[in-house]
Design brief:
Chain lengths: ~120, ~110
């Protein structure tokens, strides 16, 4: 149980285009999901907290207009990188909080974004 | 505010030797503690977690960790490492109750040498 999927697993796009990444909790409902970014050889940095049915909460320094988050259902959150640039290239990881399991987060396998 | 410190950025160790990866945290409330492993170009895999109860926690792949509240530490140990344990290891803390956010340490690269 407690499986989280991400789609796509990798994506290459041209500079200036937008890219959408999906995060799904497959066997539980998640009122809260989290989005992290990981640069090469670095740790995970929390970007934002995605709450079902309400606006996402962004961490300091993260541009909300650049990284659009939508959490329209209890099993799906999406992250859209708008007008992507090469510096947005990174590994994006989502997690979903399971309130029935001590609010533990379960992590997706990550999405590798490369912006040319 | 909570924080996590992994003092060792890299730990080289010979195969079949024991290893300890250090993790210290700071928090003013109760915490949950986690260790994750990440292999190259992959996501996070949970090794073990401390939520409550026994302070000695056993995880997968022969790893264990001990929660020491007085020293605010949660060091990861394995008595005998294998080449396949070469990976990046992350310690994470979550305040409970709290925002449910996880704060990750900077990671420790374990390199097992033949």
């Amino acid at each position: 149980g407690a499986v989280v999927s991400q789609h796509p697993s990798w994506v290459i796009c041209k500079s200036g285009t937008s890219v959408k990444i999906e995060c799904r909790s497959l066997d539980f409902q998640a009122t809260t999901m989290f989005w992290y970014r990981q640069f090469p050889k670095q740790s995970l940095m929390l970007m934002a907290t995605s709450n079902e049915g309400s606006k996402a909460t962004y961490e300091q320094g993260v541009e909300k207009d650049k990284f659009l988050i939508n959490h329209a259902s209890l099993t799906l959150s999406t992250l859209t990188v708008t007008s992507a640039h090469p510096e947005d290239s990174s590994f994006y990881i989502c997690s979903a909080r399971d309130s029935s399991r001590s609010n533990e987060q379960f992590f997706g396998p990550g999405t590798r974004l490369t912006v040319l | 505010a909570q924080s996590v410190t992994q003092l060792d950025s890299q730990v080289p160790v010979f195969e079949e030797a024991p290893v300890e990866l250090r993790c210290n945290y700071s928090s003013s409330v109760s915490v949950y503690l986690f260790w994750y492993v990440q292999y190259p170009n992959q996501g996070l895999q949970l090794l073990l977690k401390y939520l409550s109860g026994s302070t000695l926690v056993k995880g997968i792949n022969g790893f264990e960790a001990e929660f020491n509240k007085s020293q605010t530490s949660f060091h990861l140990r394995k008595p005998s490492v294998h080449i396949s344990d070469t990976a990046e290891y992350f310690c994470a803390v979550s305040e409970n109750p709290g925002t449910y956010k996880y704060i990750f340490g900077t990671g420790t690269r374990l390199k097992v040498l033949a």
